[in-house]
């Protein structure tokens, strides 16, 4: 039995290592952007910070929309057949470039013709939006690396790009540079990331060539586009394109809606609260990057494995998400006192507390949405997400004029929970009817409630005392409640 124990231990090590690298690849952009946002709001005030946040929202949406779901397709196909990596890279880079140019044209049209922004905000959005091309190329490199489980290389690209942006951009802001200079620095960092990604892909191609020779597979490199293959890619991305397009709009809908119904300064204040949630959301995003290739492979090979992977990923996301979100809601004010370092408006505290409730839904709906994508239910997922967006818009329009950023926070949280419950119902009813679903969260929920009571009484003390105390208490409670170990299928 020693070999089995060794394999399980190695599986745990690989899972932990890949999770860390995936986390770094997700954490670096958020940390860099967050620090630059804080420097900007300290040095220049909430209005420039709001303009920066709005520009980032438009860029993020444009990058995702111009992907038309290619990255999800590439991860799935490359995970099945790594030898196709070179062919996918060449052709999807060309497609990504074409759609990036189209996307930038649409962005310019929206900003200048549809939204009633002043000329300075328009200029900032359009300058930031030109990053759609390099960021799109980096997304393609990430999808290739993800499909090949090269999470370390994703972390290297992300670290190089964002270290460049943070160091040079931070120094520029600190010496008094304007927002336009910061954006130019960000664009330079994006192109630097493209160069790192290209170098690492050449290394990957050499590794794949070596493996193909050993397996007697003759794969030749061809840098010319295969338009027939491009057409096949576009055909296969249609289901992904719908869900990715709606997701990209949903992710930034609150910022854009708030900018249309309120001032740019209010956008800056809301973005400061949203920054905390954005940083914490890195955890489920990193786990998604690790489990998606494994879920894809398991779904194609073993229904028993997909059940175990889904079940345990759901459980551990609830295990992590419950204490973070409930604790964050209780400690909203001291957290904002640390990161904002100005007079914290009461509305910002309430907004962060409500956004923590939204974040919990984003933790626990992850396995269900991934499973629906893998099982080709993208169209239904798009309909459910579209319905959720409609709730955000309706509640946002009703509440923003009266309670401002708290209103958009409530709209966001309500829409996320409707989305989670509808997706979870479908999965439990039609895809995995034997899964226990929400019942799995009973133990973590009990431990979280006990922890929350203690944190509530300690909330007036330093966060450096309260957070470790709450984490230690929660950990001891979960150990006493017998946390299940990761199954072998999930580790691999």
Question: What secondary-structure arrangement, pairings included, does this model have?
Answer:
Layout: H1 2-44, H2 46-67, H3 70-80, H4 85-114, H5 119-129, H6 132-147, H7 151-174, H8 179-214, H9 227-261, H10 264-280, H11 282-301, H12 303-330, H13 332-340, H14 346-364, H15 366-374, H16 378-403, H17 405-431, H18 442-458, H19 463-480, H20 488-491
Helix pairs in contact: 1-2, 1-7, 1-10, 1-11, 2-4, 2-5, 2-6, 2-9, 2-10, 3-6, 3-11, 4-5, 4-6, 6-7, 6-8, 7-8, 9-16, 10-14, 11-12, 11-15, 12-14, 12-15, 12-18, 14-17, 15-17, 16-17, 18-19
Percentage beta strand: under 5%
Which whole number gives the mean pLDDT?
82
List low-pLDDT spans: 1-11, 213-218, 485-492
- Give the N-terminus to C-terminus distance in angstroms: 18 Å
Class from helix and strand fractions: mainly alpha
- Tally of separate domains: 2
- What is the number of strand segments? 0
Percentage of residues in helical conformation? over 70%
How much is the radius of gyration in Å? Answer: 23 Å
For the largest beta-sheet, the strand count, sense and barrel status come to: none
Number of helices: 20
Shape: globular
List the helices and strands in order: HHHHHHHHHHHHHHHHHHHH
Word description of this protein:
It is built from 20 helices and no strands. With 492 residues, the chain is mainly α. The chain has 2 domains: 19-252, no CATH class; 262-492, no CATH class. Helix 3 runs parallel beside helix 6 (132-147), helix 6 (132-147) runs parallel beside helix 8 and helix 18 packs antiparallel against helix 19 (463-480). The radius of gyration is 23 Å and the shape is globular. Residues 1-11, 213-218 and 485-492 have low confidence and may be disordered.
